[in-house]
Specification:
The chain folds into 3 domains: about 30 residues; about 220 residues, Sandwich (Jelly Rolls), CATH 2.60.120; about 240 residues, Leucine-rich Repeat Variant (Alpha Horseshoe). α8 links the parallel β11 and β12. The chain is built from 22 helices and 12 strands. The protein has about 525 residues and is α+β, with helices and mostly antiparallel strands. The longest helix has 18 residues. α11 crosses α13 and α13 crosses α15. The structure holds 2-oxoglutaric acid and fe (ii) ion.
């Protein structure tokens, strides 16, 4: 596709957004959260959304959910099929406050992941202790790992339709834990943490980096969480069941600069980075890092909050000692990767974000050409963060790398770079189409479809998406169908109708499940 055709299509797409059916709604949605709310989300990793549903509707969702679980055999769960079984859940997803909060945090045209799950928590007889039922954890993904980004690319929406006092087993979250790679020094253990209740609230045991715990108690509520927020279910010592409906949302577009909005300020370099990533001007207040040795000590600190903050100060150190800062960050990347297992996706080296802040393109390019898969995957992640179009040809080669972690990071980075720069779209689509058709692993096919979604509404992406709409794997075909529904063409409509007819749910009042 020529650049002209692409820009023409982009223009049409933008005009549609601005003046078309959804245009006005979309731009209003984009500004809806206040800066205080966004700041709370960036700091704590979660945010309540006030729903417009009336109390009757919450109870009707609760009773429908309850009826369903009473009739299913014990232990059964409809998993991803919960929404057609409790269709009022659409009213939560379509609530204008939910839509606008999501648009503020994960951008316009976000995509609802086909994974959704009703987390049940039935009364535990003989257990009246307030505490955790489930260990704190960060979610994996649906169902395979995705690169972790501090920037809001994925969100979880937890909706609880009932009143949930503490003894009815609410979900509990660890505020701020979304910014850490791990919740505790040890890898997540399956043993339940002990919790202490004091006047100020709950705290976890000392093995956790962050001790504060917030149980999501109270009236029916919808809470948006950063995907990497630590959370877990508490013991339900009441006599009533507790339900939490979980949804996952994917950002599909990179944020754009927002000079129309006022500047913000913070004293935390990670928050400053996230504000800027969201397109805002942010002033970082406080004492700028002065000394490279002091910075290096903090970077290597056993306290992960301190080391993460140091990562986002790398650019200030590099202004006075570029080579020194790079050398220290590269050594830290190597240390982090010493525990990297083969085909890893989640645990790329966090300190690569320091090289990203410095804009160390040349170092990341040499890392991308390394023989060590862990370094290659980490570099692909970093060049994605930098939205570096120069890396595209090499990243396209890497989608055939023997290491599955490298393949996944390369595809993910290509999607992000293409979304931001619109560069080399046709070459990338050709490479993706070939790989998609020969790939046996459905998760890699899903990575490709997700990357294609990030590339935007491109006619040239339609053949691949149409094939993916009939993929044997339901995650792959659901994402493709969802994206094709955004195309205003007959070919796209035809491609989605047949698979959707086959998936059609028949709500049968006579033989209700
Ligand atoms: O049931 C809950 O409150 C949370 C469950 C959850 O997050 C999980 O199982 O991953
Ligand atoms: Fe979870």
């Amino acid at each position: 596709m020529t650049d002209f055709v692409y820009y023409y299509k982009q223009e049409q797409f933008l005009l549609n957004l601005l003046f078309g059916r959804h245009g006005n709604e979309m731009s209003e949605l984009q500004n809806s959260l206040t800066d205080d709310q966004i700041s709370k989300f960036l700091t704590d990793g979660y945010l309540d959304v006030e729903l417009n549903l009336d109390p009757m509707e919450h109870s009707s969702i609760y009773f429908e959910t309850d009826r369903l679980f009473q009739t299913l055999r014990q232990g059964a769960n409809p998993h991803n099929n919960i929404v057609p079984m409790v269709p009022n859940l659409y009213d939560v997803l379509n609530d204008v406050n939910v839509k606008s909060a999501l648009t503020s945090l994960v951008g316009p045209n976000y995509l609802l992941h086909p994974h959704r799950h009703c987390h049940t928590n039935f009364p535990k007889k003989h257990n009246s202790k307030v505490g955790m039922l489930q260990p704190f954890h960060k979610d994996g993904h649906a169902h395979r790992p995705r690169p972790r980004h501090r920037e809001p690319r994925w969100l979880i929406l937890f909706y609880s339709p009932q009143d949930t006092p503490l003894h009815r087993g609410p979900t509990a979250v660890i505020p701020g834990s979304h910014l850490l790679r791990q919740l505790a020094a040890e890898q997540e253990s399956r043993t339940l943490p002990s919790m202490t209740y004091a006047q100020e609230g709950f705290t976890t045991d000392s093995s956790f980096y962050i001790s504060e715990v917030k149980p999501l108690t109270g009236a029916p509520r919808a809470v948006l969480c950063h995907f990497d927020l630590g959370h877990g279910a508490m013991v339900n010592s009441s006599v009533l069941p507790r339900y939490v409906h979980k949804f996952v949302v994917m950002r599909t577009e990179e944020p754009t600069p927002r000079p129309d909005l006022s500047a913000v300020h913070t004293t935390d370099p990670i928050h400053a980075h996230l504000w800027e990533w969201l397109g805002r001007t942010c002033e970082l207040r406080g004492n700028p890092v002065a000394d490279i040795n002091e910075w290096s000590n903090r970077l290597e600190s056993a306290n992960p909050i301190e080391s993460a903050r140091a990562i986002y100060e790398s650019q200030f150190v590099a202004m006075s000692d570029y080579d020194g800062a790079i050398e220290i960050l590269e050594a830290q990347v190597a240390r982090e990767l010493s525990g990297y297992s083969d085909n890893e996706v989640l645990n790329t080296a966090d300190s690569v974000n320091g090289l990203v802040k410095i804009g160390a393109f040349d170092r990341l390019h040499s890392m991308l050409n390394s023989d060590v898969p862990a370094l290659v995957a980490t570099a692909a992640y970093g060049l994605g963060q930098l939205r570096d179009a120069i890396a595209l040809p090499k990243l396209r080669e890497l989608i055939d790398h023997p290491n599955n972690g490298v393949v996944r990071h390369a595809i993910s980075a290509i999607g992000i770079i293409s979304s931001a720069t619109h560069a080399e779209l046709q070459d990338t689509l050709d490479a993706f189409a070939r790989k998609f058709d020969e790939e046996a692993d459905w998760d890699i096919r899903l990575f490709i479809v997700q990357a294609v979604i990030r590339m935007g509404i491109l006619d040239d992406a339609m053949p691949l998406l149409c094939r993916a709409a009939s993929d044997e794997n339901a995650y792959v075909n659901s994402f493709a169908i969802e994206q094709l529904c955004r195309f205003d063409t007959d070919v796209a409509r035809q491609a989605v109708i047949e698979p959707l007819r086959r998936q059609r749910w028949f709500p049968d009042p006579v033989f209700a499940i």
